[in-house]
Amino acid sequence: MEALLFNVSGGFLEGIVRGYKAGLLTQNQYNNLTQCETIEDFRTQLSATDYGNFLANEPLPISTSTISDKATQLLVDQFNYLRSNAVEPLSKFLEYMTYAYMIDNVILIITGTLHGRNTSELLQRCHPLGIFDTMPALCVATNVEELYHTVLVETPLAPYFRDAVSAADLDDLNIEIIRNTLYKAYLEDFDAFCQSLGGPTADVMHRILAFEADRRAINITINSFGTQLSKEQRAKLFPTIGRLFPEGNNTLARADEIDQVRQACEAVSEYRAFFDSGGRSHANGNGGANGNSESTANLLGDLDSELGAAADLEDRFFVHEVHLNKLAFLQQFQHAVFYSYIKLKEQEIRSVTWIAECIAQNARDRIHDFIPTF
Amino acid sequence: MSGTGPRESVFPTRMALTNTKLRLKGAQTGHSLLAKKRDALTTRFRAILRRVDEAKRKMGRVMQLASFSLAEVTYATGDISYLVQEQAKSASFKVKARQDNVSGVILPAFEVDRVPGSDFNLTGLGRGGQQVLRAKEVYAKAVETLVDLASLQTAFMILDEVIRATNRRVNAIEHVIIPRLENTIKYISSELDEMDREEFFRLKKVQGKKKRDAEAAEVIRKAKDAEEVPDVAPDHAGGGGDLLGSKDEDVIF
């Protein structure tokens, strides 16, 4: 059924997005980028790709943050083009995608307001994808109470806020908890919306969102070791749509150390691999270290070994996310490609920034640690 | 000659000579002490120089590592700088100053005082918390290196100044004060010698004159004796004659 009627409303945009996808950097282009000696070379290499001369007008010492900003701007332009041409239900789908960024922006504004900052300067720091029409209205609020009501009235995030937090909760310690509570509500809501669309969209999106949910659960667990976050609070932050739900989530909620996290993930074969190879590749990395990173290990003592494994896990999550997003392109007549494209593009921007950073900081041994998309 | 070279304006007396000799001795003791101090400081200075060099190299590496770990954070979570800025309430990394004494020179030494716990340990809870933690640790290490370097560098500057002052003093004592005192001593002793010689000569002169006078007096006396001796003996009234030699009428036995 979707296959029959999808092209009526979504065919054009799907074509566009698949065209955009063809413009993602290839392995070959990444190889060329990693060969660059200076940021100058880097810019020349990038101008041969779909990025074109997006850095042409920048004054010469180009900082990596400029590269990242400009590339994000390109992505935002593409997204806005898609969005302005979309009709229901795709427009709703795209709107849902912006909610994630909105959560970050609203949290940012709340943090700023709590500390009495000039909120209009906060607007410049907001992620451009998460900007909504009524966002400047948030800047009118001068205290937290007022802000809370403004958020409830003015933003699309109102339902998440209403369920998750009360005005009294809006203080410093809670800000990260609020963010994660909101994100959990968002993920569950997004998943429910995708299920209501049905068909391949629901299939593909559920896979991606379930992974996102599990990733958050695992990350929250690992990152909350040794903090004031209690286990009950932690358990409340776990999204309930992941593949680990419910028994994995329960194990995670009780976990005290990384081994217990590993046990919680045993049930899912893909996740098991993260932990298995995670330790090994880290050991390999240390074994084959050159002089520079040896001195690094000396300087940092055993800091590396503790945090290295967890940091490595994060990389594996990224790889798996990219893998899932790539799979989304194998199905036609569905909305997940839009989501996947944005995610892949974001990953690409991260990779490009990483390479630029490595070039700028002359850390060539780490330059291959990015995650290629296609 | 005693007149060459600068000298102090003192009266060439014995007392001044004693004083000056004492001062010369003091100056020599001071010179050797200061020279010892200078050597001690220079040894310390060299050691510090070496450590400054090491610390600077280390700082270069650590700072590179630190900014790279920040890049990792940006890679994993995006820009967190604003959140971290806003959530930091109390300093978790403090520097304390303490004093060190190196051969009488007070050197400030800085010490790191880390307060455990942090204000933003929930940052990156959903994503990249490990990288944030790592970046925090690495930067703490970097700041530690900076603090080390700061105390070394301060010690370096202060020692440099002190060594220069000491050097100036040593050289001043060696090349100005001691020669001047020596000159003064030479001057005084030569003056004293001179005075001695003058005195000697004067005494001789006086003696010569006295001798001459005495001789002249002798001649006159002899001449007088020749005339007057016979008259003198029978002079009873003069008293003091030889009681045994003369007969007294009043003595009956």
TrEMBL record, chain A:
> What is the protein name for this chain?
V-type proton ATPase subunit
Keyword Ion transport among record annotations = yes
- Subunit structure as annotated in this protein's UniProt entry: V-ATPase is a heteromultimeric enzyme composed of a peripheral catalytic V1 complex (components A to H) attached to an integral membrane V0 proton pore complex (components: a, c, c', c'', d, e, f and VOA1). V-ATPase is a heteromultimeric enzyme made up of two complexes: the ATP-hydrolytic V1 complex and the proton translocation V0 complex.
Q: Which Pfam families match?
A: vATP-synt_AC39
Source organism: Trametes pubescens (White-rot fungus)
The record ties this protein, via InterPro entries, to:
ATPase_csu/dsu_sf, ATPase_V0-cplx_csu/dsu, ATPase_V0-cplx_dsu, V-type_ATPase_csu/dsu, V-type_ATPase_csu/dsu_dom_3
Question: Which is an annotated GO molecular function term of this record?
Answer: proton-transporting ATPase activity, rotational mechanism
Q: Which UniProt keywords apply?
A: Hydrogen ion transport, Ion transport, Transport
**Highest taxon, organism lineage:** Eukaryota
Which family would the database say this protein is a member of? Belongs to the V-ATPase V0D/AC39 subunit family.
Question: What is the purpose of this protein?
Answer: Subunit of the V0 complex of vacuolar(H+)-ATPase (V-ATPase), a multisubunit enzyme composed of a peripheral complex (V1) that hydrolyzes ATP and a membrane integral complex (V0) that translocates protons. V-ATPase is responsible for acidifying and maintaining the pH of intracellular compartments. This subunit is a non-integral membrane component of the membrane pore domain and is required for proper assembly of the V0 sector. Might be involved in the regulated assembly of V1 subunits onto the membrane sector or alternatively may prevent the passage of protons through V0 pores.
Entry's Gene Ontology cellular component terms: proton-transporting V-type ATPase, V0 domain
From TrEMBL, chain B:
Per UniProt, the keywords (alphabetical) are: Ion transport, Transport
* Pfam families named among the record's database cross-references: ATP-synt_D
At the top level, the lineage of the source is Eukaryota
Q: Where is this region: Disordered?
A: 225-253
The family database entries (Gene3D superfamilies) matched by this protein are listed as:
1.10.287.3240
**Which molecular function GO terms apply here?**
proton-transporting ATPase activity, rotational mechanism
Q: Which family does it belong to?
A: Belongs to the V-ATPase D subunit family.
* Name the record gives this protein: V-type proton ATPase subunit D
The scientific name of the source species is Trametes pubescens (White-rot fungus)
